[in-house]
């Protein structure tokens, strides 16, 4: 019992710890205190039984409700502000800065019912304290007396501490937001102080002469301040960009600010992408010039170009299907995404990396090279950590393997090819320029490697699927050949056997005694069964690819013919067969020979599974404007309900004891179903074991457009 108690206690502790962990995560992820308060009550309900709970913030001797919860899900109580002095119990919590437990509110001098929440019998109130100050109170109550004890105060206090933290965070966030707004205003002011910003600053006169440049702009453009002061600002612009900036400058004189992207000319002649923020300067209402801040967005533009290249690569690799050509296509597309001097693509085979494709003057000479684990530390790390890697300066790297053949490499980058969570290879690139690759290139390389891995795996799967498809086609051809051979090899001798048996049974070779006749009848019966099996197998093969030679068909005539053809067999079995055909049936668009095959099968089954004295009815009726309903019903043995869904399966026979006395292969209904569905119809059965069965199928009425 003690162990059980300890186990239960440990479980309760874990449950509380999990609740507090989840709560801490929720509190830290939200800066809306009302939302946090509701989350706290929701988590508290998981570990403490109460009828209602609430959280109030406290300031200036007033309580304001932040959250309220009924445990039974009722709409929360709406309470505005409460004066602390008017709520004695809560005031005790605030005044003493400690928890208060009222086990029985009736008779307590500190209890006063809250409007809208009468009936509280027991209550816990705990303070929400942050940095020594009361910031709120968390209450839990119950309609039952003695519902809480002192052991639960610590539990509620733990949640109150989280509430205090959440409230403090929310207030801090609000203060931070207010401070941020103030700082933004200060920042906007300071941007006019020429040396106080990180952006390049240019002050132009009314006639576009440079009056001031800050050190950052000099650094960006490669000029000294002395080289720029007094010069026309057109020096920093290409002719095309100069015309655009002139148009923008006209709006400055009207007091309009400007924000746009442009390209500045570096002293070397290279273009530098910048974001321009131009502010007109006025003195006593007179336009005196323009203060312009230039933000270098070269890296952003480079990222945009790479993202565009990645997008183009993704589209190109989507259609790659050949396993060999896709490897070279990957390397070609990599050049557009991340330029290189040489690139290498390795695939894992039996634990070794095999160089399957390479591009570049050096790489192209080293294909089909096998790299075992441990040879290149950088390769092993990428495979183990599933992360890309860059070595900006190979000569200063401790993990770069000194290889005379690869001594030309100054900067290197690589990424694992990952498909289905597993490494299938590596993609690497190198440059003859030191520092060509940096940490900034890792994301691009990794993203491209992911695209490449998917394309390679897809091409492999496509190839494997194509090979499997070709194998299946060959198997299908062999199957067709086998069916053709078996039909010829079996049917021909069986026909001779049947003919000779019938010859003997008719007495042409002399009289037969009863034993001889019985034996020959068994041979004849089994010969018919085997011939029937062969015919059904051939029909089943043909029904796999049912071809319908459709024409205008009088369905009544087809049904009548099939019934007439079955009369002899029905009479021999002592079964009466009837025909019911509705007048005025429309023609159907169907294959009469195929329909006859279906009806012969259904009527034959009805005869086979009926006893002497039973009856069979074949009927045709108009179901609706679009379909005709054909049905064959009998009063035979019926089908057990648990086997009805199986009768359409190949070779399935309902009752082997019954069917052993009747020839059959279990293929007829499978063939019939395929033929009906090929006509666009449906076939189904309704049956009661021991009472009989009704097989029905529909056929589409011939449309006017087909007449």
Q: Can you give a write-up of this model?
A:
A hairpin with a 5-residue loop joins strand 7 and strand 8. This protein is α+β, with helices and mostly antiparallel strands and 707 residues long. It is built from 16 helices and 24 strands. The chain folds into 4 domains: 173 residues, GAF domain (Beta-Lactamase, 2-Layer Sandwich); 97 residues, PAS domain (Beta-Lactamase), CATH 3.30.450; 163 residues, Beta-Lactamase (2-Layer Sandwich), CATH 3.30.450; 161 residues, Histidine kinase-like ATPase, C-terminal domain (Heat Shock Protein 90), CATH 3.30.565.
Topology:
Layout: H1 2-28, H2 33-47, E1 52-59, E2 62-70, E3 81-83, H3 88-96, E4 100-102, E5 122-130, E6 133-142, H4 153-190, E7 200-204, E8 210-213, H5 215-221, H6 225-228, H7 239-252, E9 258-265, E10 271-283, E11 286-296, H8 298-318, H9 323-337, E12 342-349, E13 352-359, E14 370-371, H10 377-385, E15 389-391, E16 411-419, E17 422-431, H11 442-505, H12 514-544, E18 551-553, H13 555-572, E19 576-581, E20 588-590, H14 592-608, E21 615-622, E22 627-634, H15 656-659, H16 668-678, E23 683-688, E24 692-700
Parallel strand pairs: 19-21
Antiparallel strand pairs: 1-2, 1-6, 2-3, 4-5, 5-6, 7-8, 7-11, 9-10, 10-11, 12-13, 12-17, 13-14, 15-16, 16-17, 18-20, 21-22, 22-24, 23-24
Helix pairs in contact: 1-2, 1-4, 2-4, 8-9, 8-11, 9-11, 11-12, 12-16, 13-14, 14-16
């Amino acid at each position: 019992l003690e162990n059980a108690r300890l186990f239960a206690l440990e479980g309760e502790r874990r449950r509380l710890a999990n609740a507090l962990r989840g709560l801490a995560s929720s509190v830290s992820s939200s800066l809306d205190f009302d939302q946090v308060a509701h989350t706290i009550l929701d988590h508290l309900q998981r570990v403490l039984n109460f009828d209602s709970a609430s959280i109030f913030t406290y300031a200036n001797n007033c309580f304001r409700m932040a959250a309220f919860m009924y445990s039974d899900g009722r709409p929360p109580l709406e309470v505005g502000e409460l004066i602390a002095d008017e709520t004695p119990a809560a005031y005790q919590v605030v005044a003493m800065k400690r928890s208060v437990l009222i086990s029985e509110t009736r008779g307590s001098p500190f209890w006063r019912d809250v409007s809208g929440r009468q009936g509280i019998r027991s209550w816990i109130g705990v303070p929400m304290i942050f940095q020594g100050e009361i910031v709120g109170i968390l209450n839990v109550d119950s309609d039952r007396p003695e519902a809480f004890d002192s052991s639960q105060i610590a539990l509620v206090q733990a949640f109150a501490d989280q509430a205090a933290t959440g409230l403090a965070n929310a207030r801090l966030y609000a203060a931070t937001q207010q401070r941020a707004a103030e700082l933004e205003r200060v920042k906007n002011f300071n941007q006019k102080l020429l040396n106080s910003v990180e952006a390049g600053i240019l002050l132009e006169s009314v006639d576009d002469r440079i009056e001031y440049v800050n050190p950052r702009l000099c650094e960006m453009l490669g000029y000294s301040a002395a080289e720029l002061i007094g010069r026309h600002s057109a020096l920093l612009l290409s002719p095309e960009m100069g015309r655009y900036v002139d148009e923008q400058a006209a709006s400055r004189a009207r007091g309009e600010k400007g924000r746009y992207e442009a390209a500045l000319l570096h002293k070397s002649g290279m273009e530098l992408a910048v974001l321009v923020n131009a502010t007109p300067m006025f003195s006593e209402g007179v336009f005196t010039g323009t203060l312009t801040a230039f933000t270098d967005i070269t890296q952003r533009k480079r990222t945009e170009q790479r993202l565009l290249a990645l997008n183009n690569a993704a589209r190109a690799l989507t259609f790659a299907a050949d396993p060999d050509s896709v490897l070279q296509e990957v390397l070609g597309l990599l050049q557009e995404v991340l330029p290189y001097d040489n690139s290498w693509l390795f695939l894992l085979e039996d634990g070794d990396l095999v160089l399957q494709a390479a591009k570049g003057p050096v790489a192209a000479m080293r294909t089909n090279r096998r790299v075992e684990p441990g040879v290149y530390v950088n390769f092993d790390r990428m495979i183990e950590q599933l992360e890309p890697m860059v070595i900006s300066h190979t000569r200063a790297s401790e993990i770069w393997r000194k290889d005379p053949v690869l001594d030309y490499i100054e900067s290197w980058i690589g990424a694992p090819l990952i498909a289905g969570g597993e490494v299938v290879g590596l993609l690497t690139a190198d440059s003859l320029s030191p520092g060509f690759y940096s940490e900034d290139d890792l994301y691009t390389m990794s993203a491209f490697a992911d695209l490449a891995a998917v394309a390679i795996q897809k091409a492999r799967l496509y190839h494997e699927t194509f090979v499997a498809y070709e194998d299946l086609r060959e198997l299908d051809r062999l199957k067709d050949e086998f069916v053709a051979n078996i039909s010829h090899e079996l049917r021909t001798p069986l026909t001779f056997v049947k003919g000779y048996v019938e010859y003997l049974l008719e007495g042409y070779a002399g009289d037969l005694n009863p034993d001889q006749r019985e034996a020959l009848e068994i041979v004849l019966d089994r010969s018919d069964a085997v011939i029937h099996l062969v015919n059904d197998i051939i029909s089943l093969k043909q029904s796999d690819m049912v071809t319908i030679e459709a024409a205008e068909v009088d369905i009544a005539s087809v049904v009548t013919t099939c019934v007439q053809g079955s009369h002899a067999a029905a009479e021999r079995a002592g079964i009466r067969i009837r025909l019911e055909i509705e007048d005025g049936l429309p023609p159907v668009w169907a294959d009469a020979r195929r329909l006859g095959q279906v009806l012969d099968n259904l009527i034959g089954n009805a005869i086979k599974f009926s006893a002497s004295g039973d009856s069979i009815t074949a009927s045709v009726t108009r179901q609706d404007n679009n379909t005709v309903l054909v049905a064959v019903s009998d009063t035979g043995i019926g089908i057990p309900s648990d086997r009805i869904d199986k009768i359409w399966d190949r070779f399935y026979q309902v009752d082997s004891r019954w069917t052993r006395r009747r020839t059959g292969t279990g293929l007829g209904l499978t063939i019939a179903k395929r033929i009906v569905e090929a006509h666009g119809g449906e076939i189904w059965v309704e049956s009661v074991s021991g009472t009989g069965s009704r097989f029905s199928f529909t056929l589409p009425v011939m449309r006017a457009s087909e007449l």
